[in-house]
Amino acid sequence: MAKQQGALRDRTREFTNFPKNYKVIFHNDDFTTMQFVVELLVTVFFKTEREATAIMLEVHEQGRGVVGVYSYDMALTLVKKGIDMARACGFPLRITYEPE
What is the mean pLDDT of residues 12-31? Predict the structure, then answer.
């Protein structure tokens, strides 16, 4: 039986690389009030009061807590917005992001 020449060469594969997602993380400190953290989570990260309180308690008890998972641009924007709001209110809240 004769092989078809070029049959394998004509097939191409297309791979789609999806962008990485990033976790936004709040870190606990001794100066930022719990009330401010909840307010920040509600106003900047659009969490409900219940979600914000649960995240705040996780940050307080565990030392850090994941706020959400976002695309790189969104994570960067939210981190900057949160840090700017914290600094404007005189709080040293540390907010970071890392690949998921």
Answer: 89
For the packed helices 34-43 and 49-62, what is the interaxial angle rounded to 10 degrees? 130
How many contiguous H segments (helices) and E segments (strands) does the chain have?
3, 3
Residue with tokens 């009330």, as numbered in its chain: 35
- Is 49 exposed, middle or buried, given 0-12, 13-18 or 19+ CB atoms closer than 10 A? exposed
Cα torsion through 5, 8, 12, 17, rounded to 10: -160
Residue 36 near residue 89, CB atoms below 8 Å:
yes
Report DSSP letters for 5-37, one per residue.
Answer: TTTTTT-------PPPEEEEEEE--SSS-HHHH
pLDDT tens sequence across 37-79: 999 999 999 999 999 999 999 999 999 999 999 999 999 999 9
